[in-house]
């Protein structure tokens, strides 16, 4: 019997995706993520395929306290440098923190909040996956070189097998994106298009 698979969708939130209802990248003075419409569409297709196969779907979202007291120091300092109140910049409240509507969680899906790049750090992700009997992870979302890569590395260290859906992840530049994919591949993650990743993880 094949080991159980889960799909982990990381930080596909309005704020990170520079959605009209939330623009964290813009507020922080960071460049927009590349190819966001295509990435959202690819994630929608991947999520639909996972649902058809009854694969558990875990959404991971960045969420801090309004005053950012539990956020990373570098994020608190970066937010303070904007001169805007912390809660309006990086706390991801309201529409900023919502998963983009096209791929919003459905009843039965799992949602994990985090305050670090690593979706396993200070969260219930590992117990959730272990309780579901999951061994194989397909990972999608943003940013390829930050939360996706850090989570993939962390998963590998926790003895999960990892597939990264390369058509479902993006970053602020093609160079950062491709370098991160190469780095993850060198450490043992399998880089494949989303549906191929699902096929291989379930084989």
Write the layout of secondary structure elements.
Layout: E1 4-10, H1 24-27, H2 36-52, E2 57-62, H3 73-81, H4 86-89, E3 110-114, H5 125-131, E4 134-142, H6 144-157, E5 161-170, H7 174-187, E6 190-192, H8 194-202
Parallel strand pairs: 1-2, 1-4, 2-3, 4-5, 5-6
Characterization of this structure:
The structure is a single chain. This protein has 203 residues and is an alpha/beta fold. The protein is 38% helix and 20% strand. The chain has a 6-stranded parallel β-sheet with strand order 3-2-1-4-5-6, sandwiched between helices. Helix 7 links the parallel strand 5 and strand 6. Helix 6 runs parallel beside helix 7. 43% of the residues are buried.
Please describe the structure with a list of short key phrases separated by commas or semicolons.
203 residues, 6 strands, 6-stranded parallel sheet, 20% strand, globular, 38% helix, 8 helices, alpha/beta
Please give a quick description of this structure.
By secondary structure, this protein is an alpha/beta fold. It has helices at 24-27, 36-52, 73-81, 86-89, 125-131, 144-157, 174-187, 194-202; strands spanning 4-10, 57-62, 110-114, 134-142, 161-170, 190-192. The termini are close together.
């Amino acid at each position: 019997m094949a080991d159980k698979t889960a799909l982990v969708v990381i930080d596909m939130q309005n704020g990170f995706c520079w959605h009209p209802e939330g623009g964290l990248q813009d507020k922080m003075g960071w460049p927009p993520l590349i190819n966001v419409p295509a990435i959202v569409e690819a994630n929608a297709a991947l999520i639909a395929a996972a649902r058809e196969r009854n694969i558990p779907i875990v959404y991971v979202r960045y969420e801090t306290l309004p005053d950012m007291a539990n956020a990373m120091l570098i994020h608190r300092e970066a937010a303070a440098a904007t001169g805007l109140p912390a809660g309006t910049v990086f706390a991801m409240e309201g529409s900023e923190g919502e998963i983009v509507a096209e791929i919003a969680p459905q009843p039965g899906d799992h949602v994990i909040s985090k305050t670090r790049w690593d979706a396993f750090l200070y969260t219930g992700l590992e117990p959730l996956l272990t309780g579901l009997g999951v061994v194989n992870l397909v990972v999608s979302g943003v940013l390829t070189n930050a939360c996706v890569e850090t989570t993939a590395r962390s998963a590998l260290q926790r003895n999960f097998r990892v597939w990264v859906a390369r058509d479902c992840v993006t970053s602020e530049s093609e160079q950062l994106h491709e370098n991160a994919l190469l780095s993850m591949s060198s450490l043992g993650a399998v880089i494949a298009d989303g549906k191929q990743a699902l096929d291989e993880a379930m084989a």
